[in-house]
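Good day; I would like, with your permission, to put a structural problem before you. I would ask you to consider whether the tokens describe a fold that such a sequence might reasonably adopt. The full record is reproduced below for your convenience:
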Amino acid sequence: MSLKAVLFDFNGVIINDERIHLQLIDEILVEENLQPQRANERQASLGRSDRACFQQLLANRSRIVTEEYVTQLLNRKAEKYVLELEKIEKLPLYPGLDDLIFQLRSRSISTGDSRNLKLGLVSGAIRKEIDLVLNRAKLAEHFKVIVAGDDINTSKPEPDGYLLAVERLNREYPDLNLQPQECLAIEDTPAGIQAAKRAQMQVVGVANTYPFHMLQRCCNWTVDYLSDLELERVQEVYSQKQPQPSVTEC
């Protein structure tokens, strides 16, 4: 087995925008004459798609709505997100991101051929928000395959987004013959970690959102910062005939 692809989460791994999202969700709720999020609801939303969050928040407030109505709320939030980012001179990208992407793009697969590691992105955020950040940060060229929240009907911790990313990578690179076990996911929340593990992927947990010790018990590797990830050690595990033992669910 070899490492062929690395799949990034978006919010909490690439960009530190949790505060912005929570603020905008509250604004939408207030505009709908509903109570803003409670502390436990904010915690439960971490790692889940925007659609799943709004559906749960509305259900908690006994508001029955259609899927089309939820889509309207998501579009309103995306418009607000664009306006918020326009106020920020420098995007709050996580330190070490550029260097890690450079290392991944320049590192050949340990199968003896010259192909480089493929990069993908799997997120519950809608595509409009992802494209905005990637284009502004000049990162779009690195992510040929993106699975956004509006591409699937489920949310993390379900594995559908990761499995769809494998399908799309195989379509993008017909000779890759990628299997889920040949992917490494980079996540920051229990929901995201569980989604990747249920897709039979190994996971790096980066302690941007949850404490290191909480992620350590349920990830294959855990780092405080993206710059701490030792790719050589990761690839050594993938090159072994026997896969690394599974780890505890978060």
